[in-house]
Amino acid sequence: xxxxxxxxxxxxxxxxxxxxxxxxxxxxxxALMLWSRSGIDFKGISQGANIAKxxxxxxxxxxxxxxxxxSDTGILYLMFQTVAIAILxxxxxxxxxxxxxxxxxxxxxxxxxxxxxxxxxxLIRTIPALVWALMWIRVTGPGAFCGVVTQSICxxxxxxxxxxxxxxxxxxxxxxxxxxxxxSTFEKIRCGILPQLSASFISTVIYRFDINLKDATTLGLIGxxxxxxxxxxxxxxxxxxxxxxxxxxxxxxxxxxxxxxTRIRIRLAHGRQS
Length: 274
Prior knowledge:
Blueprint: H1 8-13, H2 19-37, H3 45-60, H4 65-68, H5 75-103, H6 111-126, H7 129-140, H8 144-168, H9 172-180, H10 185-220, H11 227-236, H12 240-273
Helix pairs in contact: 3-12, 5-8, 5-10, 6-8, 7-8, 8-10, 9-10, 10-11, 10-12, 11-12
């Protein structure tokens, strides 16, 4: 008995019609929005609008004299400190993440050890950077050192996670060939492991540096050094021209470093593919 051929119209009529499901999802989302609205205070919108208006005015009328100020309150010094915090935090975090990531890789060490270090990495990544800064500022005191320590710890969590992925994707056939050729452990690391991991490691560190540069400004808002400290003081005093100058300098630096890091990552990716 031959089966009846389905026409396009038959298939269209037999299509699933999840109207009820979509309606339920819409009602759930709407209920969540109404419920969350009860916990939001809308009284501060007018004050926030004034701050936004003042910030826009400051961006269009920045205090250019701050760019020529060479003291420790000038933009050049504050931006240098912010970039230095990001660089040191990224370098320390990237270096410390190497042994941690190897010890957390399932193709390198036994599974019980990897579980311990993966839990450690998860704990580091779970706690936000601001919380780390608030804890360390009690130990180190306010200043740039607190920012460096905080960014180093936060960098370990993210960089280790990405390092592990690269390590577990290693081509073990190359290591077996070098082992068969009688190469020493150092030669296997230099000729078999580093060429496979160097491009990925460098790209990860550069990407983390982009994040740390922005986070360094945020950490400065709570006293961890950098231009963020001066920015929050200017906002509190409603010195909008100074706020505009700080933001203008920060935007220029971030755009420049973003352009440089993108070029480097593209170069590394092309070199890895060739």
